[in-house]
Amino acid sequence: MRKTAFFILIVFLFAGVNRLSAQSLQNTAWKFYVDALHDTLTMHIGADTAYSTSSTGELIVRSHIEVVKDTLKLRDIDGEYPCMDGEGVYRFTVDGDYLSFFLVNDPCENRSGALRDLKMKRTDGK
Description:
The chain is built from 2 helices and 8 strands, in the order αβββββββαβ. It has helices at 2-23, 109-115, and strands spanning 28-34, 39-45, 49-53, 59-68, 71-78, 88-95, 98-105, 119-123. The protein has an 8-stranded antiparallel β-barrel.
């Protein structure tokens, strides 16, 4: 009986950790510098969309996103620099106030060039 209870507890703990990873991005904002634009952008991540704005507040790109465990899938919708070549897939980690992306697959060179091995800093959204 104790082994069964312990096993159930472990299963719930792992389920909670996986859920926490996905939810840790929801309703957050992250700053990062893009060399090609010579600007610091802010990525705002919601439940199923994300958008990036320039330092002056202009919309750079808006994307439909899906977060599963430690993987983020994004497909651009619109903005000044959308990539309509397909879906990008990135693994991510959150370490304190830092979000890092690691390329899994992305047919869009501009997007992968900006996000590959990127480390962003958490911000209050401004």
